Amino acid sequence: MRIENNIVIDKVSKDLIILRYNDTTTRYFEALWEIPEGVTYNAYLLTDDDTTVLFDTWKKNLENEFLNALNSIIDISDLDYVVIHHMESDHSGSIRALYEKNPRITFIGHPMTNKLIRSLYGINPKFKAIRDGGETLSTKNYQLMFIHVPWLHWPETMFTYIPQIRALLTCDVFGAYTIPKSVFIEKLDDEYISSMRKYFANIIGFYRNNVTKNLDKVLTMTRDNIDMIAPAHGAVIKGNIVKRSIGLYREFALKTPINRKIVIAYSSMYGFIDNIMSHVTHVLNDWGFNTSVYRFTDKERASIGDLIGDVNNVLGIILGVSTYDTEPFPLMDFVINLLIKKLRGWKAILLITDYGWGRRHTQAHKGKTGEGRLYRDRHNQRKWNTNKGRPKQNRHSHTKLQTNNYSIKSNTLNNKTLPWPFMLMRCINLNIM
Asked: In this structure, how many other beta carbons lie within 10 angstroms of the beta carbon of residue 16?
């Protein structure tokens, strides 16, 4: 393995070479997601006698570094094909530079890709549009099969399968936020799985409904003969952990709960919500739940990217939201929007808030999350009678509250007591459940 100036060049098989750039300077992936762990951009080059095929490139603004790395392996004027799995600029950023060096290159991709090349990079190269259904390109010793996988995570995304080495090149899918110490991942430990889950939830989560059907399609077309997965971010997955990685992706897509995990996220300007949520966390830990806490306070700012990744496979989410200018606290409002967008439904949530300046704050949450019911309003006796100590039950209710020692009776919370004055919303059939 050659490493120089954050560039890694190594063989992943006899004729397939990885060109990897270790990005340690980007702080916010897609200008949104915090990535202190860094990220890699992986391109692959197949050399087969007199035919050379490049799969993807690196991020825009790394054109010179990419051309120099590629030129250290082949003469760019001899490059025959460039396969574009996905047109986002962290994969297609060197297309124009390659074309200017060698206008004879044939670019290969989804039919939509040609339009995107012209639109994003202002060039009109030779282009071969790939139809769905396993269209192929043959070299002397290899046959490349192209498979459309729409909306993983753009509509024009596709994979390449090389049956002679049982390798699947997957672009963003199976990627991870990480800069691995080696080209291959030896085992799927908790840290690497977490980096895969975070990448999935941040980038592909919105399109999760397309994951399972596309995986089934790929496994059928490859006859499940996959010994290597080569993504565009992170490590190359090889051998016994390939099937485990595919299984993990199904778990990510289905949001399968793991480890009795509950994520707690909250805002607190002056410590009121912080005190409540500290007690909630303590009680949940006593009950045997594993909790992760994300705070947005005057002393701490949680990573939203980590939060979105962490909630993907939890049992439930508890949100604590303070009031700001009669509305939900802006950062938590942003977080809730992302939860709705990236989780795509069916997670149990509990919303806890101070009463703030009246009903407008809580009504905003009801409008945001959809159908739900507020069970306690100590300033509104028609909804909640503090002397009776029991809310009116309805067909959605699995929860009982009591003031001023608020007890929660719930299938999830095991009939325990949270002795603190707060308003609680039990959200049933929400957009983010």
From this structure: 22
Q: Which helix (H) or strand (E) holds 312?
A: none
Kindly tell me the burial class for residue 122, based on how many C-beta atoms sit within 10 Å of its own C-beta (0-12, 13-18, 19 or more).
exposed
**Residue entry with tokens 């507020």:** 374
Question: 158-162 and 143-148 as β-strands: parallel, antiparallel, unpaired?
Answer: antiparallel
Q: Could you give the 3-state DSSP secondary structure of residue 133? A: coil
| Count of Cβ atoms closer than 10 Å to residue 276 Cβ | 20
Spatial CB neighbours of 117, under 8 Å, sequence gap ≥ 6: 84, 87, 92, 95, 107, 123, 124, 125, 127
Report the alpha-carbon distance of residue 170 to residue 386 in Å, rounded: 58
Amino acid at site 289: F
Closest CA to 91 of 160, 13, 194: 160
For residue 424, report the phi and psi dihedrals to the nearest 5 degrees.
-130, 135
pLDDT at 362: 58
What are 297's two structure tokens?
């306070």
Residues 351, 335: Cα–Cα separation, whole Å: 13
Contact call for residues 104 and 148 (beta carbons, < 8 A): no
Q: What is the DSSP letter of 5?
A: T
Whether 373 and 396 have beta carbons less than 8 Å apart is answered as yes
The pTM is what?
0.85
- Give, to the nearest 10 degrees, the angle between helix 330-343 and helix 359-369: 20
Residue recorded with tokens 């009680």: 283
98-102, 237-241, 402-406: least confident range: 402-406
Describe the chain by its helix, strand, coil percentages, rounded to 5. 30, 25, 45
On the CB side of 251, CA atoms within 13 Å amount to: 18
Q: Which comes out higher in pLDDT, residue 2 or 241?
A: 241
For residues 125-149, b (16+ Cβ closer than 10 Å) or e, as one string?
bebeebeeeebebebeebebbbbbb
pLDDT tier at 88, thresholds 50, 70, 90: very high
CB 255 within 8 A of CB 264: no
Euclidean distance between CA atoms 412 and 422, whole angstroms: 19
AA identity, residue 20: R
Return the number of other C-beta atoms located less than 10 Å from residue 32's C-beta.
13
Q: How far apart are CA 324 and CA 312, in angstroms?
A: 28
Beta pairing class for 28-29 and 33-34: antiparallel
